[in-house]
Structures are given as C-alpha cells and as structure tokens.
Amino acid sequence: MKICVLPGDGIGPEIMAQAVRVLNALDLQFEMEEALVGGCAVDATGNPLPEATLQLARAADAILLGAVGGPKWDSHPRNQRPELGLLGIRKELALFANLRPAILYPELANASTLKPEIVAGLDILIVRELTGDIYFGQPRGIELREVNGESQRVGWNTMIYAEYEIRRILRVAFEAAMKRGKRLCSVDKMNVLETTQLWRDIAIEVSKEFPEVELTHMLVDNAAMQLVRNPKQFDVMVTGNMFGDILSDEASMLTGSIGMLPSASLNADNKGMYEPSHGSAPDIAGKDLANPLATILSAAMMLRYTFNQEAAAQRIERAVKKVLAQGYRTGDIYEPGTKRVGTREMGDAVLAAL
Ligand code: NAI
Ligand code: MG
What we know:
Blueprint: E1 2-8, H1 12-25, E2 31-34, H2 39-45, H3 51-59, E3 62-67, H4 83-92, E4 97-103, H5 116-119, E5 123-129, E6 141-147, E7 150-156, H6 163-178, E8 183-188, H7 194-207, E9 214-219, H8 220-229, E10 236-239, H9 241-255, E11 262-266, E12 272-276, H10 293-305, H11 310-325, E13 328-329, E14 339-340, H12 343-353
Parallel strand pairs: 1-2, 1-3, 3-12, 5-10, 8-9, 8-10, 13-14
Antiparallel strand pairs: 4-5, 4-11, 6-7, 11-12
C-alpha cells in the first residue's frame, strides 16, 4: 500500500501530520513518501507540480493531500498558481469520480443552519463526474456574431458526455451504494437536455448489473430543493460535473462544518487522491488551531476505496465519532460546554479512541 503524501500549504502540514499518525497507528503496512505540491513547490522549484512529485503520485496507489494555496502566491503568474498542482494531478491520473460524503454527527447538530431534526444523523454521499460535461466540452467560446441584424458578442459551451464516461461514473456510484445503504439517486435534467436523457438511459442499463441497489431518478432542480427540505431521504446521489459541483457544495453546507468533510477523486483503477474539502486556511495556519478530522476521514476513505480495507476505515470513523461524543472540539466546531483542543490534541484524542 503505497501512499504519496502531499501536505501542501497553510494548515496542510499540521492536519497531514495527524492523519499520518492515525494511519501509522493501524496494524497495516504502508509505504509513505512525502513530496511538494502547490505554493511550497513553487517556492522550492518554480513549479506547483514538480516532475518528481508527479512521478511519485503516478507510482503510488493513493495520494493523500492537505491543501494548497494562500495569499503569498495570489500575485504569481498564471502558470505558478498553487491550484495547478491539484488540477495537474487530477488530469494526469484521470481522476474522473469525485466522492463527497456529507455527514452530520449527532453531536454537531447545532453546527448546521438547518433545524437539528432535519439534519441530525445525516449521512449522504454525492458522486460527481469530474472530467467531462460542459466544463470541458468543445466547441466553446465567445465571439462576435450577427444577431438580429447587428453584431453582438455571443458565448457558448457544449454539454457533452460519451456513453463510456456515463457508464464508468455510474458503476462507481453503484459500487459505493453497495458499500452503504444500497440506494442510489441519479440526478439529471432529462426533460430538457438530451445529454442527460442519455445519462438516464445508461443509469437504467447499468442498474441491471447491480440488482441489489434501488435506483431512483430525480430532476436536478427538485434535487436541489429536496436536499434542504428532507436531505435524509438520500443515501448515494450521482450526477454530472456541473450539477455535481453545485449539489455537492449545497450538501456540504448542510453539515455546517467545513473542517469535518473529506473527499475522494478516483480513476478507473480505483487509484485516488484523497483530501479534505476545505482549503489551506491561511488565517489559522501554523497556530495549532485547524481541525484535522476532515483529513483523518479522507485517510479512512482511502482505506475504503483504494485499499479495500473496510474494517480499518470504519475503525477510524468510529474513533472520530467517539472523540466527538467525548466532547473534544477544535475552534471551528466549538460550542460552550465542550472541550476546546488544538490540532495535535485532536490527533491525540483520535489515537486514544483507536
Ligand atoms: P478555506 O477552506 O481555506 O477557509 C475558509 C474558512 O474555513 C476559514 O475561516 C478557515 O479558517 C476555515 N477552515 C478551513 N479549514 C479548516 C479546518 N480544517 N479547521 C478549522 N477551520 C478551517 O477557504 P478560503 O479561505 O476560501 O481559501 C484559502 C486558501 O485555500 C486559498 O488560497 C484557496 O485558493 C485555497 N483553497 C484550496 C483548496 C484545496 O487545496 N483543495 C480548496 C479551497 C481553497
Ligand atoms: Mg465547487
């Protein structure tokens, strides 16, 4: 089990240190190698994704990433932007499946802006296609055209999916549903868009390979509404790149706590990059204030999806639940009456719970 560890910038090194401690506490044999990505890589080499990092990422089974970016690099030229490090890895490894769980632990029910009874116990997974759709479709552009007898600027994009792209993301979603509550909701806009009519047809075809999973379909506008009306009706949701971008951010906010949310981006070989959903939090970097749980939970996702170590993944997730039940809270999830701890102490608590 080869892991490429990329701490990155800002709070990245602090939260990564805790995730690495947790992984080392399991009785599993990992080979971990660390490399530079993002702003720290720009400082050291002038390149946000140095060749050595890319080679290490290619050679590993999984990549565990902290976060990249910060004000220090905001004025750098386009080709030295820290995010290029992440985008480069996604592209090079063809990480087409983005998995974002939104889990609200009962202890954190007050962190959400929604009523506790709507969100307490929420546990859903959004599977978003990451390398196709209108974000990458050709042709695209802005140009002057003759419209109504006058020359105007016109902008256009192409929403396009090939059958194999839809099929492979649906398989990932069905497989994820098999490991969870065996219910999958496929989100489309088939009443208006041919691309998503094809999506729905293929979802029905692929469902024949997974007879144990109950497949439902929902139009995206209704899905957006249902996510805030009654989010607990969902188990796994699967959708295209654009709808998934919007719905996964909406779902993450149901939990109200960015410091708790992991993510995975997988390719066809179940190789993946695992990272917290939040950024590098420059405002609290280097102060031992950051919540390491999103990164620790990302490591659990890595064990589940790349290494097929479901028991170890659940051990980590149970340890996280336990520390929350014991009242340990970093600043982002603190409420009066709980125990405020720093990044390292939160790591200590998870290790003790393990
Ligand atoms: P952010 O997620 O870094 O921070 C937003 C707010 O949440 C801040 O107040 C921060 O202190 C807090 N926060 C984030 N993670 C936390 C944690 N683990 N524990 C406690 N509090 C936490 O987003 P922001 O401020 O928009 O971006 C900061 C930098 O991060 C930018 O340079 C941005 O480009 C980069 N970024 C990187 C991402 C990545 O590496 N995947 C994703 C999003 C932003
Ligand atoms: Mg987004």
